[in-house]
Amino acid sequence: DSVGQVTAAIRELGLEDSTTIIFTSDNGGLCTLRKGGPTCNLPLRSGKGWLYEGGIRVPLIVRVPGISMAGKECDEPVLSTDFFPTMLELADVDQPADVTLDGQSLVPVLAGKALPQTRPLAWHYPHYHGSEWTPGAAIRVGDWKLIEFYEFGDAELYDLATDPGELKNLATESPDQLATMRRQLREWQEQMHAQMPQDNLEYLAEETR
């Protein structure tokens, strides 16, 4: 209803043909509380606050007058960090010289073309969350997905093409793939200068010095 009110106002103001609308969510539905959550994301696993698909795979609807096609569906995975470079290109604004973009423009996809290059998709959440998530990170390369759990020092590996519900951990069966993706995730974290979780005892020791 709220989106309908906004789009109606845009139409009434005569801005419908010059306004881009991006409709999405910042996370999957909340379903992992101690007493149970209010939503269910099946067949995807888990939900808000977690790096399983139920927590990070969300709907995305984009309308760009003159570029996007009504009713067109695309299964190309993208990230919210792609929105900024997309907006820059749509507005015909050059990338600021002092800004590093960690996403890529979706304009080709919106026009019905493939992304110019495949790239790993990565998520970093090194904190605790009220949904009982513990610090971790994830990376997806093609249909392969790795999730690292820093509190326990282990990782899980899934093939989303055959197992979108992430029910079968292939870490033991595919050790080479596991090692490769852990290295790729670490390289991305270093490139992004990602803050890594720190042991509480070490942190307290530093604070008391």
Question: Explain this structure to me?
Answer:
A hairpin with a 2-residue loop joins β4 (136-141) and β5 (144-149). The radius of gyration is 20 Å and the shape is globular. The mean pLDDT is 89. The strands form two sheets. The protein has a four-stranded antiparallel β-sheet, covered by helices on one side. Strands 1-2 form a two-stranded antiparallel ribbon. The longest helix has 17 residues, at 175-191. With 209 residues, the protein is α+β, with helices and mostly antiparallel strands. The chain has six helices and six strands, in the order αβαβααββββαα. Helix content is 25%, strand content 15%. The chain has helices spanning 2-12, 53-56, 83-90, 107-110, 175-191, 200-207, and strands at 21-24, 60-63, 121-125, 136-141, 144-149, 154-159.
- What distance separates the N and C termini? 55 Å
**How many extended strands?**
6
- The whole-number mean of residue pLDDT values reads 89
Spatial order of the strands in the main sheet?
A: 3-4-5-6
Low-confidence stretches: none
Tally the helices.
6
Helix fraction by DSSP (H/I, runs of at least 4): 10-25%
- Element pattern in H and E: HEHEHHEEEEHH
Radius of gyration over C-alpha positions, nearest whole angstrom:
20 Å
The coarse silhouette is globular
Q: Which sheet architecture does the biggest sheet show?
A: 4 strands, antiparallel
Could you say which structural class the secondary elements and strand pairing correspond to? alpha+beta
Percent in strands = 5-15%
